[in-house]
Amino acid sequence: MTANERLQQHVRPSERFFLQKATDWVSQADREYRPVLTDFLNRRERYLVQTIVNQTPSLQFATNGGFADAEMQRGLVFPDYFVPQLSDFELQLMAIDYPMRFATIKHYQILGALLGTGVKREVLGDVITNQKHWQFYCEATLVKYLQSNLTKIGSTTVSVLPVSMSSQLLPEDDSVLVHQTLQSLRIDNVIAAAFHISRQAANDLVRHGQVRLNWFTEERPAEWLTVQDLVSVRGQGRFVLQTEDGFSKKGKIKATLAVIKHK
């Protein structure tokens, strides 16, 4: 059994398409002996790419999302002779211009409007705010398309323009760390705890396609979460399973969640 076949046994069914895509990136970099640029990747996806790259000693893997600890980052698979530069990641920072004295826009509205233009999530990086101004990262080739097609966020008229990365806002972490004692790490159980809803309501959200696990739709309430999994729940918010902290005296799982609720 090859290393990739062993890896296949340890990924979720929803991740297998991405795993093949990642394998193709690595194979191309190795075969053509040149750097290969990936889409924007979440934490889990970066882990999978790194695992595959580790199987080829002559290749390395670097990522960049515009700032340290960006949730979404583009990856570069490259031979050991190559020294990556920031420009190799082809990132563009975009600023959102809107009548801030008369309107309020939110993170989920921005992401929804961006996806509503027809682009896919993997060509978009993080959305950044200081609670008044808003910016986001995207692939550099998308600038003109987004300027032509992103004209409204909700009911607010907006325009977007490319700006220098030196003018990037300081990212604010609006997550709240929540310490939970859980019966299990089933996704429906953790959703119920994170957003203070019933287990049945959480189960229904998962089964009805309202939940994404690491940006893949997850419809199995019994799916077990692992550390650094990102869960997004439509109408509720999102959270990251930050740590598993052992067991309580009653045998329950102690865990820390970083929760961002929709306001």
Automatic annotation (TrEMBL):
GO terms for molecular function: RNA binding. InterPro entries: Nucleotide-bd_a/b_plait_sf, RqcP2_RBD, S4_RNA-bd, S4_RNA-bd_sf. It holds the Pfam family S4. It comes from the Bacteria. The keyword Metal-binding does not apply. CDD domains: S4 (cd00165). SMART domains: S4. Residues 185-242 form the RNA-binding S4 domain. Keywords: RNA-binding. The keyword Transmembrane does not apply. This is RNA-binding S4 domain-containing protein. The lineage of its organism: Bacteria, Bacillati, Bacillota, Bacilli, Lactobacillales.
